[in-house]
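INFO batch 0412 | record 1 of 1 | parsing
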Amino acid sequence: MRLEPHITFSNQKGLPEIYNSRIISTEGHDLLVFLHDDVWIDDFFLADHVIQGLREYDIIGVAGNRRRVPDQPAWAFIDDQFTWDSKENLSGSVAHGATPFGSISHYGDVPADCELNSGNSGDTILIFLD
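INFO prediction complete | emitting tokens
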């Protein structure tokens, strides 16, 4: 099987504990895909696109920030007032909606070297690890 899902639901654990258990697993998989339960995978070629992205990067995601600033509360914001960072510092696109193929928000050009990925502020997260 090309993709092997390990789904965690109705759990009482935090995401770091769940993610770390997969990272340290001895099952021998070379690639991991982490995503929240509110993600629609609208890509028939997801595995190919992950492999292609990992040819250049160790970690890839759908949205991120090219820089970090002191006390940054989340990937897209620069202060605790949730002021959006400048577009030239952001990367990626995310489709939003209750069904697949929702309205797309474009944050910035891709690919790009990023310091932060979406997900640390409650946003939908899609992170791939080599």
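INFO post-check: Residues 15-129 form one domain.
INFO record closed
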